Amino acid sequence: MSITTDTMRVPAPERLAPALTTGWMGWARANLFSSWLNSIVTIALAFFIVKYLIGFVDWAFVNAIWNVPNDAAGRPDTSSCRDNKGLGACWAVITEKHRFMLFGTYPYEEHWRPALVCLLFIGLYIVSAMRRFWRKELVLIWAATLTVIALLMWGGVLGMAFVPQDRWGGLPITLILATFGLAFAFPLAILVALGRRSKLPAIKALCVLYVELIRGVPLISLLFMASVMFPLFLPEGMNIDKLLRAQIAIILFAGAYLAEVVRGGLQALSKGQYEAADALGLSYWQKTAFIILPQALRLVIPPLVNTFIGFFKDTSLVLIIGIFDLLTAGKTAIIEPMWQGFAVEVYVTIGLIYFVFCFAMSSYSSKLETELNRGRRR
What we know:
Elements: H1 23-31, H2 36-62, H3 79-83, H4 92-103, H5 112-129, H6 137-154, E1 169-170, H7 171-196, H8 201-215, H9 219-229, H10 242-268, H11 271-279, H12 284-299, H13 301-314, E2 324-325, H14 326-333, H15 343-372
Parallel strand pairs: 1-2
Helix pairs in contact: 4-14, 5-6, 5-7, 7-8, 7-10, 8-10, 9-10, 10-12, 10-13, 13-15, 14-15
């Protein structure tokens, strides 16, 4: 005869993990102070970072000059900035020249138009980044927004004065070149990437020739050829604006680089994906659009965005053909003798503008990659 005794099991109370192994303290201990050598390097780097950060704060804020008075002739008196040279920044150059830096030689009284164009571009980027707008209607949004941008920049309608393209400059030019360049280069890159994997020898050879030819020369040479050589092949009396020629060169250059990134994504897919699509009886374009491309593009989001950021910054190269982009407008703003010697403040401001756009693209791509790959994690 056996006697069974029921024993009540009381769960042990939960205990918190040691503070030195979790949170920021745990991360610091594992990554910054894991050994005596890492500890010495971390302390040395922290010392130099704090030292130079304090120096930058003193230069940029504490000892900085934000405004300068006008002299008897009504011109800015920069003597106080020159006396403060080496001690603090002269942000007065930004206060006086910010309109020229942002909008170039666009008529001063019409600056509200390029300012509104910049806001429309930013709004278009934000809408395009929202997945709930990834529908056919997004094409109509792009078309309507770009039409309004063209009307604002050119004018000549609705009581707005006409402004020729040679008066455009600054941030709107940078956004126009980057937006149109990448918007048209991306579809071109997909077609070229598919063409390089085509079984038709003629199409494959043409795509390979295009990619290798464009990737074999720097962007400066393409811009130079678009500005100088391309008009020689046009019929007599026909002329294409230099902004459009630069835009075509950027599209062709970006398309070649993006095509290789997309091709890498196509090659990364397993053969089973293609066989499964064929087993479903899908046509080539159905298989490509619904099965292959979505997976391939998801795999290459980081290099795609890296290429986008690179070409956004490369738009500054259009200065060699006389187009006033953001960087060129900044350089021109300090030509006046009274503002010479304050280029650092101008370049810091321009660099901050570029950083905001590039950091936004990088952050968005990181979040998008995490969201799209959430279901693939185990």
